[in-house]
From TrEMBL:
Gene Ontology MF terms in the entry: peptidoglycan lytic transglycosylase activity
NCBIfam families: MltB_2 (TIGR02283)
Positions of the Peptidoglycan binding-like domain: 333-384
Record protein name field: Membrane-bound lytic murein transglycosylase B
Annotated keywords: Lyase, Signal
Lineage of the species this protein comes from: Bacteria, Pseudomonadati, Pseudomonadota, Alphaproteobacteria, Rhodobacterales
Signal found in the keyword field: yes
Organism: Albidovulum aquaemixtae
Signal peptide range: 1-16
Amino acid sequence: MRLPAIALAFTMSSQAALGCGGNFGSFVAELKSEAVARGHAPARVEAFFAGVRQDSRVLKADRSQGVFQKNFIDFSRAVISKNRLVNGQRNAQRYQSVFQRVARDYGVSPGVLLAFWALETDYGAVQGDFNTLNALVTLSHDCRRPALFRPQIFAALELHQRGDFDPARTKGAWAGEIGMVQMLPEDILRNGVDGDGDGKVSLKTSPPDALMSGARMLRGLGWRSGEPWLQEIVVPEGLDWSKTGLQTQLPVTEWARMGVKGRSEALAQGLRGSVLLPMGRKGPAFMAYPNFHVYFEWNKSFVYVTTAAYFATRLEGAPPYDAGNPEAGLSPNQMQALQQKLQARGHDVGGIDGILGAKTREAVQKEQIRLGLPADAWPTRALLAGL
């Protein structure tokens, strides 16, 4: 489910410098030479890469992420099941002492990690069956995001030297993430925590290790201790919609003066926030606090991030959101047509993929302002026709 932690765009010159593409065997030989140059023993390097092969399933998975074309309501209803909510509460009780340590050491609330744990691997039950080394080498050889994946190979080699990575047996997600909360090898090297005290960092089999490591990574990404991340709100009909969206952050007191209220509890005081309308002014509404932006360092999908953050609030007692009555959205083909029109007008939409991501939403809002439409960043057929 999880997308790579950092989405990057590269020029052809940077791709060439990284040596992606070409004959796969020659590419692996280059990796071996670089590993030796980094100080690894030639025999260990040969053993590490001995069985590596290109995995066509990885490339297919990388190019078919249609699940993220769903809107927020459809996606959140599909992945936040009663079973996941019940199991979340059970795991919160079962690992209460671990979550207490997480809150003390890293300032991360239990619901945040429980939501990631559920969405990434269904609480550890579905961790992926892709050979991790094959996945990383395949994606590094592919020229779409070599600067993200190539360093992960050498991080995996470091883990192998520590005895924490078996190139033949370690399996995980198609994009190379490992364990219950799906972390890339570099993230494990940087943030791995021996949460159960057995002398090893095992994110595949130890919930304490996985939870503590995930919390440490979130803190390193900028998580602010003890602060909220997302809260459902009620917005007045006359709100200036052009002020909504993640690009506008205002003091909570200013939002309150405009008539914005918390739906089930008061707005957090002393913070800045953004009014987030994932399906426009007639759909669900949330206040996104500074910690919400950290989610985008974990995953770049707007709908995934919003769902994960909302799910975390549900696991901590928030009621189901008010779905409202949003205007009909666009089909994937219509969304691609819209993105093409937006791009032609000079907007950066992050790619013609039919996915309503953060960049497309920002471009939509700018065009809504220009055309005199309600600027709530929700693309409709009226906008498409207007362009």
